[in-house]
Amino acid sequence: SQLEAQLPLALKQDEFEVFYQPIINLKSGVVKGFEALVRWNHPQLGRLSPDQFIPIAEETGLIQALGEWVLQTACAQMSAWHGMVPGPAKPSINVNLSARQFAQPHLLKSIQNILHRSQLDPAYLNLELTESCIFNRDQETLRLVQQLQELGAYIYLDDFGVGYSSLQYLNFFPLNGLKIDRSFTQKLNCHAQTQAIVRSVISMAQALQMEIVAEGIENYQQTHCLSTLNCCFGQGFLYAPPLSGADAANLLTQQL
Ligand code: G
Ligand code: G
Ligand code: MN
Ligand code: NA
């Protein structure tokens, strides 16, 4: 396809941009951190969403270079923001890793280098994996998860609830957090069954000492419901869409 052919040059020509969606403490309203979400500012087609090019980048192998660029950009940005945030309440950065990226042999070394270059304290880096990243419940994959944690980073399972054997992953991998998929958040108000499922997911995550972030919060009823269910953190259009770096920095500054 046309996009496939343009992707490598787009990276060289700096056409990608990282946006930052705030992750909010639902009780206090304070920004806990941001999820980094990449966009492609295409010279003819305008701003493209990752759904339009991440799958292509995965197929062609460019995801390796693009993924490293996103990680480097997001870590350097957060490191710079930490410079302007006084005190211990520093925001964290969540970065998505695709399956192919996770499978590449130099991932650990590459993240180590990025942390070193950006001078970001690894305790503020959360890596969001999908089930497809950790589909193989084998010793090699387990070791990689542990090594990333030994670097000081935290491992989150993204889109929780939309896969098909999630509980097996929780049992096998020492995960630090769960992101509850927005399809659950969106049904919370009107659907008692969804509430029951989310309630049990949250109590299970708490028992496993995992942090929980609800995705796709669009109204206060959902926030209220999540708070009642002891979900501490969330993100969604109610609070903010993914923001440009400049807008995210403004939000942080206002909060000081
Ligand atoms: O915000 P939104 O439309 O931008 O994101 C759509 C999807 O693309 C989400 O599922 C998100 O996890 C994924 N995504 C966004 N940025 C990245 C990225 O840098 N790397 C990977 N692998 N996926 C991303
Ligand atoms: O990693 P992941 O797929 O979960 O990335 C989040 C995606 O969800 C991005 O595409 C982002 O733009 C989108 N998003 C963020 N907040 C909301 C929301 O409140 N409602 C909806 N429908 N989508 C959201
Ligand atoms: Mn995500
Ligand atoms: Na998600």
TrEMBL record:
Highest rank taxon of the organism: Bacteria
Parent sequence residues shown: 370 to 625 of 627
Protein name: EAL domain-containing protein
EAL domain boundaries: 1-256
Organism: Lyngbya confervoides BDU141951
